[in-house]
Amino acid sequence: MKKVRMLLRVSSNQQLEPDGDLSVQREIVKDYVKKHEEWQLDSKEYFEGSNSGYKNSVADRNVLQNALQDAQAKEYDILVAYKDDRIGRLMWEIGAYVMALKKCGVDIYTVKDGCISPETDDTMGQMMLALRYGNAQKQSADTGMRVKDTAQKLVQKGKFMGGKAPYGYKLELSGEISKHGRALHHLVIVPEQAEVVSYIYDLSLNKEYGSSKIASVLNRHETYKNLAPNDTWKGGTITSILTNPIYAGHTAYKRRERINGQYHRLDSENWITSIDANESIMIIDGDTWNKTQERRKRRGDKYIKALEHKDVNVIRKNDGMLALIDVLYCGYCGSKMTNGSKYNYWTIKGTGEKRASKIAIYKCQNAWQGVTHVKTKQIRADMIEPIVFESIAQYIGKLQENESIFNEIENNQNQEKKRKQAELKKEKQNLENIQDKIRIMEENIPNAMTGDYPLSLEELVAIIKKHKEQAQQQQDVVTLKELELKSTSVSINEWEDIKNKIPTWQDVFLNADVATKRVLVNKLVERIDVKKTEVVIRFKINLNDFIPQPRICGDSHTILCTRDSK
After folding, report:
1. Which of these, 256, 393, 450, 523, has the minimum number of CB atoms within 10 Å of its CB?
2. Residue 33 is part of a domain; what is its CATH number?
3. Would the pLDDT of 64 be above 60?
4. Which residues contact 546 (CB under 8 A, 6 or more apart)?
5. Final residue of a domain: which of 259, 278, 305?
6. Do 202 and 288 touch, CB atoms closer than 8 A?
């Protein structure tokens, strides 16, 4: 008797329902197995729920990997599926997978086509297998296009295309049945959430609040703070609510597009929306929604560059850079400080010339997203940078008191640099070896197609893919080693340069451009945490390891500074 296991796969959650495709597949496969007297159905089955056989690779499908491992362990002899597309729809990968099971002594049968596993020496059979799944892959691509076209037409008619209900709504059974016999859902307004949505639109339109400020207001609201999705209101959530036409009763399609595995938002002119509004799901009237979009766009244009300021003469005092941007963190929440610089505009009365100056500002990203935060959200560069530069000067002053420290630091840094260079060289060589193997195998693809190569085409493609995955992993290792080498603390020449500049260190910070200051700060400082009245600077080099004298700070290589609370 041959031990048989079944493979079941459905592509959507609806197919998991008791009367859905899953139960139908199982019964059909059971009946098929019963027709073979020499087969015995095993109690274990392989099941994939809500998983696409077209979008997901074999390596990412755990069920197929488990079936392969069990085949290698000789746990069963035959794998049965309802149709060949239940195994997958990728031309090269599925063919290679079928042959991998064959090598383990496992044949794949389908109810529709019988055995689809060619012998390992059957070149023609393997080519037909590749064609079978090549056709399946093309059918999936064609089906995807038809589904998108159909979805666009249905959305234009006001149909909800499924998915998670937007904030302010819930899904309920509509009483309609699809052509596949499945119960359909529709959107129903959740009153308490709809009240929040109306409040959000009111703040945006009538008070001209931005998304982050609205999130901050909601997080402080006695009632609305408890109605936040995922417990906290954030600027991104508010923006999503303010730009979704569903709140004006219009379903929409193609608001975002998937490119190389990542989704990107599309401009509203590229959206497909329903022609008529559905009043049953309308929370905001169409006029309010349109005015809100226009007002938000005008505010955005104002911040980007208002029309009347197109030809202004901008005085760039910091040439668009912030010297501490790589090492500055919020002392309250620990998030990275980002560029929050702003422009001031004015007109010279005598000539009418329009000018603008840029105010360099660091801002806490969490605070600006509306996350509950202490009052301090940002800090001007001209308030924090002088404090940091003065502290660095004091730090360097300690080096000046004991010049022998340079020799010790230079030796340590030189040894570390050599070690990292050797590691990088080794990893680069490993990467080259993998790439050479890939090149040789790709050159032999034509031979594999004609049968003049020890491996079949499917086997060769599978090995090439595996090596390419290894190459990508190795490339990541090389990149990491390069970054480690690059970030290795100050080199001999750099330390010598710093040593020579010690007597005029203040002049360096007073007269150097922002780019130079930024480089010097990154060489010396690991991290800076800033609060309203406190700055903590953590240096990369712990001087206490080299200077046998009282410490210059509270921590081993940290300086605590205070700043004016104004």
Report:
1. 450
2. 3.40.50.1390
3. yes
4. 402, 405, 408, 409
5. 305
6. no
Q: Which residue has the tokens 């059909």?
A: 28
Beta pairing, strands 2-9 & 39-41: parallel
Helices first, then strands: H and E counts in the chain = 16, 22
One domain for residues 200 and 61: no
Q: How many residues does the chain have?
A: 566
**Lookup: tokens for 131:** 């064609």
User: pLDDT digits over 196-232, tens only?
Assistant: 999 999 999 888 888 888 998 999 899 999 999 988 8
Angle between the N-to-C axes of helices 191-206 and 235-243, in degrees from 0 to 180, rounded to the nearest 10: 90
Domain tally, the chain = 3
- Residue 477 φ then ψ, to 5°: -65, -45
Are 132 and 54 within one domain? yes
CA distance 354 to 425: 55
Q: Is 42 exposed, middle or buried (0-12, 13-18, 19+ CB in 10 A)?
A: middle
Q: Evaluate if residue 257 carries a pLDDT over 70.
A: no
Mean pLDDT of the region 122-126: 78
C-alpha span between 411 and 419 (Å, rounded): 12
> Phi/psi of residue 179, each to 5°?
-65, -15
Average pLDDT for residues 239-244, to the nearest whole number? 90
How many angstroms separate the Cα of 341 from the Cα of each of 252, 301, 338? 35, 16, 9
Q: What is the pLDDT of residues 144-166, one digit of tens each?
A: 565 555 555 655 665 666 678 88
CA distance 432 to 322: 39
Is position 395 within any domain?
no
Determine the 3-state secondary structure of 339 from DSSP. Answer: strand
Is the domain of 76 the same as that of 127? yes
Q: Quick one: 181 and 293 in the same domain?
A: yes
Give domain status of residue 410, yes or no: yes
Q: How many CB atoms lie within 10 A of CB 409?
A: 20
Q: Do residues 21 and 136 share a domain?
A: yes
Is 368:235 a contact under the CB 8 Å cutoff? yes
Q: What's the token pair of residue 433? A: 């070896």
161 is a domain residue: no
13 and 121 assigned to the same domain: yes
The answer to whether position 342 is within a domain reads no
pLDDT one-digit tens code per residue, 488-521: 654 545 555 555 555 555 555 556 667 667 777 7
- 322 versus 227: the higher-pLDDT residue is 227
Which residues span the domain enclosing 440? Answer: 406-492
* Phi, psi at 286, each rounded to 5°: -60, -40
Q: Are 180 and 296 in a shared domain?
A: yes
Helix (H) or strand (E) holding 361: strand 361-364
